[in-house]
Amino acid sequence: MLSAFARAFKTPDLRKKLLFTLGIVALYRVGAHVPVPGVNFHAVNQCISATKSSGLFGLVNLFSGGALLQLTIFALGIMPYITASIILQLLTVVIPRLEALKQEGQAGTAKITQYTRYLTIALALLQGTGIVATASSGALFSGCQYANQVVSDQSVFRIATMVITMTAGTTMIMWLGELVTDRGIGNGMSILIFTSIASGFPGSMWAIKLSGKIGGGWVEFFSVIAVGVVVVILVIFVEQAQRRIPVQYAKRMIGRRAFGGTSTYIPLKVNQAGVIPVIFASSLLYIPSLVVQLTNSQAGWATWVRTNFIKGDHPIYMVTYFVLIVFFAFFYVAISFNPEEVADNMKKYGGFIPGIRAGRPTAEYLNYVLTRITWPGSLYLGLIALVPLIALVAFGAQTNFPFGGTSILIIVGVGLETVKQIESQLQQRNYEGFLR
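Above: the chain sequence. Below: its structure as tokens.
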């Protein structure tokens, strides 16, 4: 990987793309530290150091690189765009108009992307209003004595200014991501998410060292690094694993020329769903805590939620989290991969799986293989997501364990994809051909 980056910097056009990407990343990190107008930055710092935990808003804070709890202009991060993309992808299966646009090729994809942008702005307005209202009520930092001083001026004009600023920040992040995709290296949105998550690693590792009790915390520190190396190797191994289903295309005579007769394969990844099931399960488990925190209810059900669903080290929380991840893995694979559509396309172009009849038998075979391969993928996702929750027990209330769950899946996935793109572009530029 390091050699690929070194060779990329020696290539002039690739060096420009890498420097452009690094410049956008630096600009993104600067914006993540600029506070929104109307926020008492001193009170925010006091509450962050006092609460020690991101609590309810941990997922959004993870994707914003810590900007959410600091109430900066990039507080919402890339989360509204991720949510909008997932919603549009789900609606594509339900709404025939969106499905028709998807089948139109590049023009239809551009139209769906435009809808995603509009929905991102709408969700940013909605989420920004919720975050500002939560911060104004003091619920963003529950248990902090300075929580009610975070937003001192609660006039309509000031609240509207804060919401518009956060929405504009999300729009700018979306624009920066598209700039990286067009002029830089890799997928821009993925690179920004990678940057947000990676920015929290040094602080998380140092917090583990400070909270350690053996050898001044260094034993825990290096133990976490060892666990992290094992987890990263496991994630790389599973993310690269795939089941290749062979496909043979029959020869066709058009005039005097023969077409087809080639062999290829359909790659079915073990983790076909990616990180989406973990995001779905985390978001769904936050809902009971959100209802309790906003209503401040003291009823029996609220007490049960506070006992079992606020902290992730409770067995009921862990089991529920694991089951939801497995369920959403099957759910997302079912809506993102359509065996019948794949079988119809193969039949249309004269393709078939050796030993399997074209048409419905091919669709049934693909569905059978996909179901069997999703089981180990979903169990793998559940186990990886439980790593930081197990760390809560092992390292004592260390909620920001870096190597596990959503963070490590995104870090490894984006890293592998970016390296592949760099290597592919290097191969294109170093190809000499037959003639020298």
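Confidence is low (pLDDT under 50) at residues 432-436.
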